[in-house]
Specification:
Layout (H helix, E strand, L loop, with lengths): L12 E6 L4 E2 L5 E2 L9 E9 L20 E5 L4 E3 L11 E6 L3 E5 L18
Antiparallel strand pairs: 1-4, 1-7, 2-3, 4-5, 5-8, 6-7
Length: 124
């Protein structure tokens, strides 16, 4: 098996460490992944990022994501990797995915760990 730190993505490939399937609600209630089988997106952390793809003019397009970003990806996207993570206490799942298959970056406010972006304008 390969260790994640031995993997160096090329072009627009991104190495992700997938979050475990169980999730907690705001009140701390754990929802097992088996209950939410219709969910088609998964949360992950970016472990490594390729240098970026070239456009038709040969200009390198810089990746949007960076190491450490918390992201949402489609469940079906990418390639699952058979890796071993010696620093982990439990089961760790890694996936190689193209950057374009990452749906969004999750930005959390440092004060309350909630989202920083607003979807509606504040009255003002």
């Amino acid at each position: 098996m390969i260790r994640p730190e031995e993997i160096r993505p090329i072009r627009d490939q991104v190495l992700l460490r997938m979050h475990p399937g169980d999730e907690a609600t705001g009140g701390g209630i754990i929802i097992p992944a088996i209950v939410d089988q219709d969910k088609k997106e998964k949360r992950a952390v970016v472990i490594a990022v390729g240098p970026g793809e070239h456009n038709k003019r040969g200009i390198r397009l810089e990746p949007t994501v960076k190491v450490g970003d918390d992201v949402i990806v489609q469940e079906w996207g990418g390639t699952d990797l058979n890796t071993v993570d010696i620093d982990s206490d439990g089961d760790v799942h890694h996936r190689m995915i193209r950057e374009r298959d990452i749906q969004c970056i999750i930005e959390e406010d440092e004060d309350d760990n909630g989202p920083t972006g607003q979807t509606e304008e504040s009255p003002g």
